[in-house]
Design brief:
The complex is a heterodimer of chains A (143) and B (509). Chain A is 20% helix and 40% strand. By secondary structure, chain A is α+β, with helices and mostly antiparallel strands. In chain A, the strands form 2 sheets. Chain A has a 5-stranded mixed sheet with strand order 3-2-1-5-8, with no helix packed on it. A 5-stranded mixed sheet of chain A has the order 4-10-9-6-7, with no helix packed on it. With 509 residues, chain B is mainly α. Chain B contains 17 helices and no strands. In chain B, helix 3 packs antiparallel against helix 5. The radius of gyration of chain B is 22 Å and the shape is globular. The chains are: A alpha+beta (143), B mainly alpha (509). At the A-B interface, helix 1, strand 7 and strand 9 of A face helix 3, helix 6, helix 10, helix 11 and helix 12 of B.
């Protein structure tokens, strides 16, 4: 529009761009730190199938629907599925990654204190998706 | 402005077999509203079921899964898109001063593909969500529902592409020779932008759908890991189409707000140029963010970073529209008639939806919200809060021009207030529910006290919206037959000079 000054809009757009840049930079930095897996993390294999979770510890112990770990240790989940896509989720520890058949996805966590937490499936996987739940038991260190 | 279609009663077959743009527009309008009520009924059933843990009114999870699948498919493909086509059909030819759409027969064909597609989706009643994730959709989803859904979507995709070609050609080639592209009203610009997105985006999903079908038939294994395929490839193809598709849905609704806001503020639009710029920018950067739906599929840090940046890049363009609306209203002599209330409410909810979207796009936060009720609340603030609000506001705005009669203003305002309160109750609450960790697409949930409370607030909100929609339906039906005759020169009492400055008559030909 002729003679129509638009500087307030450009200032506003600059503020929005600055805000988004800040959000992006903070998110980038946080994600970079989160994705750094500690070297001493114990591996737990996680398998999703319709409609339960099974786990295999490094020492060969297997569990179904329940997972026992120790507080103060770091664990690395190697997640896969045998039939359809599921999503492995311990919401209290913000652990979330898809269990995709034919792929192994990894995510790690280090529970800080003893407690009981829900494990659930967060990707639609059919009939009993709503009840594809498990329990995480974080126990005091045994030593 | 003359487009009075219902004033002279005509036999229904004359409208059905017509290729005139306002008749096709009317067909789109009635069809989309019918599916709005059908899809909305499913939503109410879903909310009633989730009012308490355990089974309430729906017998089993498979029925529930089918209901939310058909709910989503219906409201996206059979309400939002056809509604936008209705508005485009009515207004675009008049705004660019042409006698009809560029290809009237193609226009009618594009419409008539929708009812059979809707029938396939509703008679099949598939269960694999509107996203049809393989390998579930290949190896596990019950047929023939799944196959009927695939064919239904295929038909709808073709219909969208035909409609988009028609809008692009109409706007670029049929506009009045005296009218430069820089004078085309923003509503028509919104259809130009969204149609171009459709033409680039839809073919990808069209291919993915065919591959999904042959996978289901067992003759290929594109997405089936058991046959060496990759289900994540489907996710990329799907979101390459359907993230831009989000802008296909939202841009016409923004265009409708650009019609309403300046008239009811009795001021020219603050900046036409920035509106055009933001539409074009959105339709380009809309293609740089698709995989933000897929952080949790196991993407690399670099991939996630790229798509986060691509997503955040869309924010300034959306923010420009909000600024433009507020700056237009600033110092205006605003008249809060029903259409204006819907438009302003829609802007507020658009802003809220966008703010929540920034949280989703930030990589670490997405792992807290992804596939929880947060996401359900987030995108419903777009599809309901922004798109349906803009569309319903525009429906009230065009009502006197279509029917020659006025709707009941009080009922329109009650409809808005109840819908706004209900929308806030349902979808803001669902954000919080998501932060408490409740996954989406669940038939039942454990009796966690916070989850129960949040679900109950959301369900009550949904019922409030449901009641308001009954008021809306009664108002539309009653007023189109028995409402007081509208003054079509100035139906909203704004002073005639605030309406669209053209005198167009498109007689039937």
């Amino acid at each position: 529009m002729a003679g129509h000054s638009n500087w307030p809009e450009w200032i506003y757009v600059a503020i929005v761009i600055a805000l988004m840049t800040w959000v992006g930079a903070e998110a980038w930095e946080a994600e970079r730190l989160i994705e750094h897996v500690p070297e001493d993390a114990e591996v737990i294999k996680v398998i999703g199938q319709q409609w339960f979770w099974s786990f295999e510890h490094e020492d060969g112990t297997r569990e179904i629907g329940e997972l026992h770990v120790e507080a103060g240790k770091a664990y690395k989940f190697e997640i896969t599925a045998t039939d359809v896509i599921h999503s492995f989720n311990i919401h209290d520890y913000v652990v979330l990654l898809d269990a995709v058949p034919g792929r192994v996805n990894t995510v790690w966590f280090a529970p800080d204190k003893a407690g009981v937490h829900d494990i659930q499936c967060r990707e639609y996987c059919g009939l009993i998706h709503y009840n594809m739940r498990g329990t995480l038991y974080v126990e005091e260190p045994s030593t | 402005m003359t487009m009075l279609e219902l004033q002279k009663p005509r036999p229904i077959w004359q409208i059905m077999f017509s290729t005139h743009h306002t008749d096709v527009g009317l067909l789109y309008l009635i069809t989309s509203l019918a599916f709005l009520f059908l899809g909305g009924t499913l939503a109410l059933a879903i909310r009633a079921e989730l009012f308490l843990p355990g089974s309430q009114i729906i017998a089993d999870s498979m029925t529930f899964n089918r209901m939310f699948t058909v709910h989503g498919t219906t409201l996206i493909f059979l309400f939002i898109i056809p509604f936008a086509s209705a508005v485009g059909n009515y207004f675009v030819p008049i705004m660019i001063r042409y006698k009809d759409m560029a290809y009237p027969k193609l226009n009618a064909i594009a419409f008539w593909m929708i009812p059979p597609a809707g029938a396939l989706i509703w008679l099949g009643f598939a269960d694999f969500t509107w996203y049809a994730t393989p390998p579930y959709s290949i190896i596990s989803a019950p047929g023939p529902a799944a196959d009927m859904w695939i064919f239904g979507l295929k038909i709808l995709g073709i219909s969208s592409v035909l409609g988009a070609i028609n809008f692009v050609v109409t706007i670029l080639k049929c506009k009045h020779p005296d009218m430069s592209i820089g004078q085309v009203p923003l509503l028509a610009w919104s259809f130009l932008s969204s149609s171009l997105i459709i033409l680039v985006a839809i073919p990808t999903f069209a291919a993915a759908l065919l591959m999904l079908l042959t996978d289901r038939l067992g003759v290929s294994g594109f997405f089936n890991p058991a046959l060496g395929g990759d289900p994540i490839a489907y996710a990329h193809l799907f979101w390459f189409t359907f993230h831009p598709e989000v802008y296909v849905l939202v841009i016409p609704a923004i265009g409708m707000m650009y019609e309403i806001i300046p008239r009811f503020s009795r001021k020219p639009i603050y900046s036409y140029n920035s509106g055009v710029f933001a539409f074009v920018l959105l339709s380009i950067v809309g293609f740089s963010s698709w995989a933000h739906h897929m952080y949790a599929t196991g993407m690399s840090f670099t991939e996630k970073t790229v798509f986060m940046v691509g997503t955040l890049a869309a924010v300034p363009a959306s923010a420009m529209h909000v600024f433009n609306f507020i700056a237009t209203m600033w110092n205006g002599r605003i008249r809060f008639s029903t259409p204006m209330m819907w438009a302003v409410g829609g802007i507020a909810l658009f802003f809220s939806a966008g703010a929540g979207g920034v949280v989703n796009s930030a990589m670490p936060l997405d792992f807290s919200t992804h596939d929880t009720y947060w996401v359900v609340g987030h995108f419903h603030l777009f599809v309901m809060g922004t798109i349906a609000f803009g569309s319903i506001g525009f429906l009230y705005y065009m009502f006197p021009y279509v029917t020659g009669r006025m709707y009941n203003e009080t009922m329109g305002k009650i409809h808005f207030i109840m819908s706004f309160v209900g929308t806030v109750m349902v979808f803001f609450t669902q954000h919080v529910l998501g932060l408490y960790g409740m996954p989406r697409r669940v038939f039942d949930y454990p009796p966690i006290p916070e989850w129960i409370t949040m679900n109950q607030i959301a369900s009550v909100g949904a019922m409030i919206i449901g009641v308001s929609m009954v008021i809306f339906l009664a108002n539309m039906i009653h007023s189109s037959g028995k409402g007081r005759p509208a003054n079509t020169e100035d139906p909203f009492g704004l002073g005639g000079k605030y309406y669209y400055p053209f005198e167009a008559r498109n007689p039937h030909h």
